[in-house]
Amino acid sequence: MDNWLRDNSLFLTVTFASIAAVLLVLAVLFLVLWLLSGKRRRNLRSDHLDTEDELTDAEIALQEQLGRLRIVRELNEVAVHSISVIIRQADGARYAATSDPSAAARTAATIAETARGTLADLRRVMTVVREGEADVSPQPRLKSVRELFRTMRDAGLVLTFVESGDRFDLQAGAELAVYRILQEALSNALKYGGEGTEVKVSFTWTEQGLQLLVDDDGVRAEARRQGVDPNALAQQRSYTFEEDLNALTEVITGPGMTEMRERAELYGGIFKAYSVPGVGFSVSAVFPALRYDNGVHGVKLER
């Protein structure tokens, strides 16, 4: 009897030890599987974030390319119109040559001037891409900025316009570039500042150039919409030197910014966009020699 109890006790001890060993192995196995599963989830999450970043980069690149295509299409339309003018003038000069040689000479000078402007626009086309957007619509002029202002006011902007200096005529391509920069700057003010944003547009004409400045108070407008006095809010918050420095040195990116910068650079302009801490956002496009720009200086001519 004692032997039987001893044998059964030994058997139970071995059995429990075996079960404990199996459970320990299973626990270790489940722990390993759980760790591997967590690592896989982290990898999948990281891959998902990488994919989202790649999609975002691809979308930004696509928008930038569409902006370049629109620039090319619009400049092509300007060039086609200029060439049609050259053809009409050349036909007139040919018929006038027999009866009025002096009129033919004057027409030839006009043809040469128009051809130079057309060549300048074609060279600018070569600096971007060859294909443009499919849709065709009449190109806006600076004379129609009042209509643009009215549209933006109806959309919710509180807009004022200040102009100084003596305005001079611009080439069609340069005029279109200035208009599009202004249009994009106002659209951004409405998009990011929201309804009620106050915007000041300034045109400063010099003897040879033009400075376009668009200032908005989008930050203050957000405070007003929340029922907060922006002046009291500014008094409560102090801005550091680093914040002011970052606002001056930061590089604002995005498809709209890229398109505005490229339009300015095509005509020898200097473009800058920067945030004003506690106030809003500013866009500046300075064209030092827009009046006599010939499309050669400061423009890349290679294909």
Largest sheet: 5 strands, mixed
Output the structural class. Answer: alpha+beta
Taken in chain order, the helices and strands follow as HHHEHEEHHHHEE
- Percentage beta strand: 5-15%
Strand order of the largest sheet: 1-2-3-5-4
Cα-atom Rg, whole angstroms? 34 Å
Number of helices: 8
Per DSSP E runs of 2 or more residues, the count of β-strands stands at 5
The average pLDDT score comes to 75
Low-confidence stretches: 2-17, 130-136, 295-303
Which geometry do the CA atoms define?
flat
* Helicity range: 55-70%
What distance lies between the first and last C-alpha atoms, to the nearest angstrom?
Answer: 104 Å
Written description of the protein model:
A hairpin with a 4-residue loop joins strand 2 (198-205) and strand 3. The protein contains 8 helices and 5 strands; from the N terminus they run H-H-H-E-H-E-E-H-H-H-H-E-E. It has helices at 2-99, 101-126, 145-155, 172-193, 218-225, 230-236, 241-249, 255-266, and strands at residues 158-164, 198-205, 210-216, 270-276, 280-287. It starts with a helix and ends in a 16-residue tail after the last strand. Helix 4 packs antiparallel against helix 8. Strands 1-2-3-5-4 form a 5-stranded mixed beta sheet. By secondary structure, the chain is α+β, with helices and mostly antiparallel strands.
Set out the fold topology.
Elements: H1 2-99, H2 101-126, H3 145-155, E1 158-164, H4 172-193, E2 198-205, E3 210-216, H5 218-225, H6 230-236, H7 241-249, H8 255-266, E4 270-276, E5 280-287
Parallel strand pairs: 1-2
Antiparallel strand pairs: 2-3, 3-5, 4-5
Helix pairs in contact: 1-2, 1-4, 1-8, 3-4, 4-5, 4-8
